[in-house]
Design brief:
Length: 111
């Protein structure tokens, strides 16, 4: 029976493994920044930035199978990658959406 323990940790990660890690990182950042998963525009922007930051972090040294296993075990985005995707615009829109929902104005009824 094949298990992930039998795969060499220095083997280059496949495209599916890379995308799975990106999905996990995007979910972590979205939760931290309070970006709604139903807001597809912000999630697409965030996913693209997470992908670019992760690819830039690894550069020529491609992500390995060992890296993928480490990321899935930790379930958090590394600080070096998170610092590359810092974006005030996404944070501001998430905060504005949060404030918009929480502050309801009373209706004025004219007689």
């Amino acid at each position: 029976m094949n298990t992930f323990a039998n795969i060499d940790a220095n083997r280059t990660a496949s495209y599916k493994q890379f995308q799975a890690v990106i999905s996990m990182f995007t979910a972590c950042v979205a939760k931290k920044w309070r970006v709604s998963k139903t807001n597809t525009k912000n999630m697409r922007i965030l996913r693209a930035r997470v992908t670019a930051a992760t690819a830039a972090h690894f550069g020529e040294a491609k992500m390995t199978h060992g890296d993928v296993q480490k990321f899935f075990k930790l379930q958090v985005i590394p600080r070096e990658i998170e610092q590359r995707i810092e974006d005030d615009q996404l944070k501001r829109t998430a905060a504005a959406n949060k404030n918009k929902k929480s502050t309801a104005k009373p209706k004025i009824i004219k007689r």
